[in-house]
Design brief:
With 86 residues, the protein is mainly α. It is elongated and about 45 Å long.
Length: 86
């Protein structure tokens, strides 16, 4: 798989993971334990693409790009998603 497709998958995974994390806090604030448990259960599964692509990389430069893309995904997720949920 080409590196740019890996980076897109990692970026959107980070966005979805941030949405899921913020939703988990929302359910916690409203004492919805079922929703919180489901969100907490899904979070580790959503990190699998980033873990897989990090292991698959052969150079430090590729790992750096994946980590940077993951960080940008989280940053964009916090800026865009948090105001609508919390």
């Amino acid at each position: 798989m080409k590196m740019k497709y890996k980076l897109l998958i990692v970026f959107f995974t980070a966005l979805a993971l941030e949405l899921n994390s913020i939703s988990c806090f929302y359910f916690l604030m409203h004492k919805n334990w079922t929703g919180m448990f489901l969100m907490a259960f899904v979070n580790p599964l959503m990190t699998l693409p980033m873990s897989h692509f990090s292991i698959e990389c052969t150079t430090f430069k590729e790992r750096f790009y994946i980590a940077l893309t993951f960080a940008f995904g989280f940053g964009i997720g916090v800026i865009t998603i948090r105001p609508f949920i919390i």
